[in-house]
Amino acid sequence: MGLFKGKNALVVIMLALVLGVLAYIVLRGNKDVGPIVPETSVQPISTITPVTIDGVKIPAKVGGSYIQINHNGEWQDMLIKGVNLGATKPGLFPGEMGIAKADYLRWFKQMGDMNVNSIRIYTLHPPAFYEALLEYNSKASQPIYLFHGIWVDEEDMVASKDVFIGHTADDFKKEMQNVVDVIHGQVNLPERAGHAAGAYKADVSSYVVGWILGVEWGPTVVDSTNNKHKGMENYNGQYFRTENAQPFEIWLADKMESITVYESDRYQWQRPISFTNWVTTDLMQHPTEPLETEDMAVINPNLIKENPSYKGGYFASYHVYPYYPDFLNYEPKYTNYIDFRGEKNNYSGYLNDLKQNHQLPVLIAEFGVPSSRGMAHRNVAGWNQGHHDETEQGNIDARLFEDINHEGLAGGLLFSWQNEWFKRTWNTQELDNSDRRPFWSNMQTGEQHFGLLSFDPGPADKSIYVDGETSDWDSKKINPIQLNGSSASSTNQVDGQASLKQFFVTSDEGYVYFRLDFNRTEQPLDWSQINTMLLLSTIPNQGQHRVPGDSDLTTEEGIDFVIDLKGDKTSRIWVDSYYDTDYFTYGHTLGMMPKLDYPKNKDNGIFHTMRLVLNKPLTIPNIKGKPIMLPLESYETGLLLSGDGNPNHPGFNSLTDVALNAKDHVLELRIPWQLLNFRDPSKHETIGDIWGKGLGASEIIKEIKMAVVTYKQDWMQQKESPGSGASIYTYPQASDSKISSSDMYRYQWADWDIPQYHERLKKSYYIMKDLFGRISIKH
Question: How far apart are CA 744 and CA 708, in angstroms?
């Protein structure tokens, strides 16, 4: 029975039309300033209406090459433009679940502004995540879709090297059921150590467009499982089956069946499904791979088939980075591949091969490079694992996504949204305290700095920026160190510019900062002519007592590090050869570099440059039919980069170590804690006596003792060595050419358990925002 008739009905209809137009305007916003929507993308919608097929609701399905979303009754391909979202922030380990709803809402807004259409999480997040996602999507013109991971505890699996025994399968199944209940807002999970818990009432099932099960499966586990269960019958379930599959693939099919049965029976929902895979266990053979484990096992997604009863569809998902495994740098069919730009491109070459070898759509679930100071692997084209400033990071990330799109893959999920302080990297993990990683930012560790969102150390309103300006030091009210006298320590003519006027030191959760104010003259400061050494003593009863160079200067306190400032591209930090962890590990312990007799002796008079190893010696097989032998690969991480370290300046370079204000005669620098051999600066823990107690040696110190020596460049002295014979001033004053321990300056800082930090969107964020706004599917 109608409620409105005649004129009343006409009024209601007109009013509805007006309100509809107004609502459309509000939802669309100003088209001139809103995000760019490619013609082939799904148009902005405020709600998702699942499609019901044979009594099963699906929010999305898998098409020929892409995930598809239903819009106005039509299935449309969607290029996945996404990010991976971690489960933590500074000061917390992932299992501590410390991200608040306000954090999620702020991040979702920033992601939406960046034109992200999808995010992926690896495991259950706290209820706040799902509440925030539902709240954001209910108001957004373009929702953010979710690929939900199901975490598997690897400890039992790795110990047994067999996924069919132990608790792995049962725990995995229970976790899948929990996640299904969570996305439907139908569960109250009790407190569990290392897991999210609480009342999950937000139903986000309409926005979950895919399951991605599991982790990067260890090749030894895959290989061992297959060998232990040879001859296993193929799987034949209600929703999935296998054909000519290996046992590990059969196990995965069973897990896909488990989550599907549970959600179909309990909620009458299905959705696209996949499992995590990576280059290490891909289905192709790589004859130039030097490491056996990187090509020993295969997980072939093609051997798992979906039955007609499964409506959501099945896709493959891979983690693909451009720099590892090593065959990516040597396989000719990749390194010689010509991309859409007309350039050689090993990444595109691999993606092309991956696409050609799959009978189902392929999503690149992880890709990217970090904006860390430290580096862990090189790429043949320079897309390395680290040592990129934020602009380089963004340009490389954008390039990789363009490759993903042009090779016809389903899209990509950038790793990652936020920096993760708790992470480790293979070539630095033995140098820090694993129990304290979340409490400080280690710029030497690449894995911590993949994010588009940086957690910069220190409070936002009192940060020190290495840019040559001093107002930040003033606002933080940092007092200068009392220089307590200085003297000319040689008969060379004293240059007025070499006189130190003030000396400052401070630190935060990422760096130790130094500021040197030199005596001002009419001429700009030329730091290539007037050089400076900062002498640092960090650990008692070690160090060199002779100041490097040809002078007769000595110190009563042993010097562990020399920061030698001698101009652009030639400034670096040096370490006492006795305290050089690089030589101790790869020379003395592993025998991968020439043996040296002197480092084991204290006070041997020799400093070393500071290096990070990128690869142990390798034999690359099958290069033009023959193997090639590669020596230990490393690079000088102690080389100091001059630039502008202020993110508010147009010339900002996030890798800046040193900044010169030549006009005001000010030199600023920052040194990452790990470059001073700190394991955990929050507790004053350094690496200890490595020759006496091994690489795991640890010592708690009270302070850093310091002295400053200015000198003029002696052109007879090699540029790649610290100091010279033409010393001018010493601070503190030397007596009889010796700097006493009692006179040295002391820097002390307080312990912390709650790190201070502030969020900042990196330059790479804005580069990816531009790309995601304009890129569309290439047909």
Answer: 9
- Whether pTM exceeds 0.70: yes
CA-wise closest residue to 130 among 195, 190, 198: 198
**Three-class SS string for 354-400?**
HHHCCCCCEEEEEECCCCCCCECCCCCCCCCCECCCHHHHHHHHHHH
Give the tokens for residue 488: 């000319």
Residue 73 has pLDDT above 90, yes or no: no
**Angle formed by the axes of helices 168-183 and 247-267, to 10°?**
30
Q: What is the mean pLDDT of residues 469-488?
A: 86
Buried b / exposed e along 364-399 (16+ C-beta atoms within 10 A):
bbbbbbbbbbbbbbbbbbebbbbbbbbbbbbbbbbb
The per-residue pLDDT for range 40-72, each reduced to its tens digit, is: 334 444 457 899 999 999 999 999 999 999 988
Kind and range of the H or E run holding 18: helix 6-28
Sign of CA dihedral 185, 187, 191, 196: negative
Q: What is the DSSP letter of 587?
A: I
Written as one string, the DSSP assignment of 473-492 is HHHTTPPPPP----EE-SSS
Q: Is 332 exposed, middle or buried (0-12, 13-18, 19+ CB in 10 A)?
A: middle
Hunting for tokens 């960090």 — which residue is that? 538
pLDDT tier, 21 (very low <50, low <70, confident <90, very high otherwise):
very low
Per-residue pLDDT band for 9 (boundaries 50, 70, 90) equals very low
User: Residue 717 — very low, low, confident or very high, per pLDDT cuts 50/70/90?
Assistant: low
Contact 339, 400 (CB under 8 A): no
The Cα-based distances of 589 to 60, 582, 583, 678, 694 in angstroms read 55, 10, 8, 21, 9
- Whose tokens are 């650990």? That residue is 539
152: β partners: none
Residue 471 has pLDDT above 90, yes or no: yes
* Structure token pair of residue 76: 């449309």
Structure tokens at 56: 């099963």
DSSP for 721-773? Answer: SS--S-EEEEES--BTTEE-TTTSEEE-----SS--EEEEE-HHHHHHHHHHH
**What is the SS3 assignment for 37-104?**
CCCCCCCCCCCCCCEEECCEEECCEECCCCEEEEECCEEEEECEEEEECCCCCCCCCHHHCCCCHHHH
What interhelical angle do 390-406 and 763-774 show, nearest 10?
20
3-state secondary structure 534-561: EEEECCCCCCEEECCCCCCCEEEEEECE
Please confirm whether the linkage preceding 416 is cis (ω < 30° from 0): yes
Residues 93, 126: Cα–Cα separation, whole Å:
14
pLDDT in tens, 323-345: 999 999 999 999 999 999 999 99
> What are the tokens at 191?
């407190």
To which H or E segment does residue 17 belong?
Answer: helix 6-28
Hey, what are 663's tokens? 């006009």
| CA 51 – CA 69 distance, rounded (Å) | 10
Task: Determine the average pLDDT of the residues in 317-324.
Answer: 98
* Cβ atoms within 10 Å, residue 343: 10
Taking alpha carbons only, the member of 256, 285, 282, 288 closest to residue 271 is: 256
Helix (H, G, I), strand (E, B) or coil at 266: helix
Mean pLDDT, the chain, as a whole number? 91
Round to whole Å and give the CA distance between 159 and 166: 9
Please give the full DSSP string across 206-234, using - where no structure is assigned.
GGEEEEEES----HHHHHHHHHHTTTPPP
Residue found by looking up tokens 């409506």 in the block: 311
77/86 Cα distance (integer angstroms): 27
CB contact at 8 A, 545 and 578: no
